[in-house]
């Protein structure tokens, strides 16, 4: 085996010599079959055979070098490579026959003999390469057998399909020194005790906890890509009862993008644990609103705004205008979309929604048909420390955009609101509640249809708790939770945006659409799940530290106010609240109070909170709500 290793640096010379031998022997074998003479050939055949071999070696080497066959790593060759060797040998045989006829070279005359030799050559070339691969692979396996099994990570694979086969094959050929595969889990009872690539199916989902405990499993690979969300959630919940870290294959769409299945394995995301079903959309209605229209998105570089841009561009707008004050995030989404959709008309515009003159320039130039208003200050604790900035940006910024949309007769204006606007306990939520009031009041006097869409926390957004937890787990803890009983609604960003686009197709103006966020999730339970699925024990390996509620934070979020009636739409995840009885005069009076506050010399946080409580009756201190 050591000799083979030393010969590694001369591999190409050795392969060329082996191939030349295959060519010579194949032609010799062909002549023997014709002449029925093994050792002593007639001079006639000897001369012709010699010239045929020389021409064939030249042709084969040219073909193999042009197609870079000698660049292949034999250890990783498979059926596709072997088939290619056969094709190239047949092509070479045809070229040799043509050369013989065109140049009248004194060679073996029978074309059938040349083609027969081509078949022999391909079989011999493939055979010796298979033998070399077998020797190399078995050498690795034998060496790994000598490694102490305790040093390897004990692995359990869930799912006995094609993905499991690919993962096992990868581990056996390249990573057997790292992993010791305990077995496979599959719910199909008929498959029990069968093998996949030499690995035995040892149980179903109900056996996972027992198997992991008995074998001290370190890792679980969840290899089922085409599974419904509910079953995935159930199996992952079982995996949480073990001490093993879980890695998971994503959906089929992601796998298709990257065919190397092993590289697709990722850590478990909160979306996997929540097990929410995919959203069903009426794409035709959405397309009719967007296609060939100019669409403007404020806050286009933010979490929701950028996803709005990603999904809007799929419906082929005439032009997409992305407006944001923060240049870096806006630049990122601009490059992403222009790379993916080079023919689309996309404009990235730097502007502040506080700047009336700048908004006037933009709307005069582009005349948008739809406006999605996602720009806002959203970080609760930061806005508690800077309430005047929240009022300037969220309330007066929204009022500026609303008025400019009215002036330029935009078809629909869509405010992106939040569950924190319901019985707000913080300045951010109170400002968003005021924005909802502005939208509903303006709708009564405008040709533009003004609506709001309200939903809770989105996973992966800027400031989301999930990335923070992952970072803290990676650093060894502690994982910080503000209160053991705190709950939140969660939705993925793409899911939220899909429902926003669907909701606007139902809009007649004045509605507040409320998205079904599913069941509320305890943040503490979320932290426990993420720690367990990362292969750690909560409060043993990774501490969960209770830090106390932050300024303006409440224990439970609500999506609907007490005075609002809730009606169904034709989509089971979208509801609509009855319009509030508020006029533009009421809004003007409230805005005047806020304007006086902003112009007051030395206005402070307490002044801001006092004024907001006067104009938003449902705004309360968190202490009164958190009981």
Describe this structure in words.
The chain is α/β, with parallel strands linked by helices. The protein folds into 3 domains: 2-145, no CATH class; 149-268, NAD(P)-binding Rossmann-like Domain (Rossmann fold, 3-Layer(aba) Sandwich); 283-476 and 489-516 and 550-589, 3-Layer(aba) Sandwich (Rossmann fold), CATH 3.40.50. The chain contains 24 helices and 22 strands. A 9-stranded mixed β-sheet has the order 10-9-8-11-12-13-18-22-21, sandwiched between helices. Helix 13 (303-313) packs across helix 20 (493-504), helix 18 (427-443) packs parallel to helix 23 (605-615) and helix 19 crosses helix 21. It starts with a helix and ends with a helix. Mean pLDDT is 84; it is low at 1-7.
Structural features:
elongated; seven-stranded mixed beta sheet; Rossmann fold; alpha/beta; single chain; 627 residues; nine-stranded mixed beta sheet; 3 domains
Q: Give me the CATH architecture of the largest domain, please.
A: 3-Layer(aba) Sandwich
- Binned, the helix content reads 40-55%
- Report the portion of residues in β strands: 5-15%
Count of structural domains = 3
In the predicted model, the low-confidence regions spanning at least 5 consecutive residues are 1-7
CATH topology category name of the largest domain: Rossmann fold
By CATH reckoning, the class of the largest domain would read Alpha Beta
Specify the biggest β-sheet.
9 strands, mixed
Q: Determine the N-to-C terminus distance.
A: 74 Å
Structural class: alpha/beta
With helices defined by DSSP (H or I, 4 residues minimum), what is the helix count?
24
Mean pLDDT metric: 84
CATH homologous superfamily designation of the largest domain: NAD(P)-binding Rossmann-like Domain
